[in-house]
Specification:
Molybdopterin biosynthesis moea protein, domain 2; Molybdopterin biosynthesis moeA protein, domain 3; Molybdenum Cofactor Biosythetic Enzyme, Chain A; alpha/beta; about 400 residues
Length: about 400
Amino acid sequence: MTTVNEAEKLILAQLKDYGTESLPFEQTMGRVLAEAIKADRDLPPFNRVTMDGIAVSYQAITNGINTFKIIATQAAGEAPATISELDECIEIMTGAVLPASVDTVIRYEDVDINNGLASLKITDIKQGQNLHLQGVDKKQGDVLAPAGQMITAAIISVAASVGKAELLVKKMPRVVIISSGDELVPVNQKPALYQIRISNSYTIKAVLQQHALQPDIIHIPDDPDVTRQQIEHCLQNYDVLLLSGGISMGKFDYIPQALEDSAVEKVFHKVAQRPGKPFWFGRHGNGAVVFAFPGNPVATFMCLHKYFLNWLRAVLGLQEQSPLYAVLDKDFQFLPPLQYFLQVKLQSNPLGQLTALPIEGNGSGDFANLADTDAFLELPLERSDFKKGEVFKALRF
């Protein structure tokens, strides 16, 4: 049986570059930047005032002048005013460009203004105070955001600031989510006593939407010919097939045969893990890959996070995430020789440690238990007893 580590390596060996595309910058949240964003001018682009107040020449301060005639008021976005005498000043607002004839800004709080005159209330004044000087942050042509990172709100802000109305991003693979089985009915339909509503597909879709993917969903009835036709159609029109259920040894599990008939090569089937032991992974000659998850909701959820999302990050060229570790908050025992993904609730204790409280539920079919947890704690298959206070890798979802 394939181990978890082996399964990860085999999956990450199936990477493909899907190219790039240019999109309006406001539509790129969560996508991966495929070009460096550079400053189109110095940042800030001019000597910028950082406090509301008056602008003076510091030479006036050294000459002992402490009362100034206000000869202009300048707001942010207005052309700079100018003074011609040392005893003159300009009322100036935050964000305004500093006029060339002055070099120091004194806050309103530090002056008295009456009858067009501004008198200083303080003596501790430094030349160049309350200014954000041109180019001190970045120079024209400097890289503000390198390629190869996920676009966040901060990157959107950078793009807007330098006039990048469009951004080059990595193309996302085309993904289809496939459910199967006559026991499944639509969400808006009342199921018979022997039926259940389709839920795994929407769980997968919701997770993928958090990662800027917009997958399609199809459902295949228990019919071998229809199953084969739908699988062949998906292999020709999508880059990734995500299946939930129908891959076991049941009499009506037609998907394994349909995959074989469609020339999908099995890379592995069954992983030494719980939940998700029946997990199946394969590849087609045209480059499409198939993740066939077990139908139990918790197994599907865990495999999606552990395997598919890691594969997606690698495909998009994102750096491998640093492992997250947590302290087991309660003794736990798991006897089968499988790597166990224990459902836990992550918390922080007064020592600043991340702790993991087991919330076991009733097996991989207990989908309701997922709502009470936020991570899987990865317990190694070489052991059966796990003690409170031990540290293990956590898979946060």
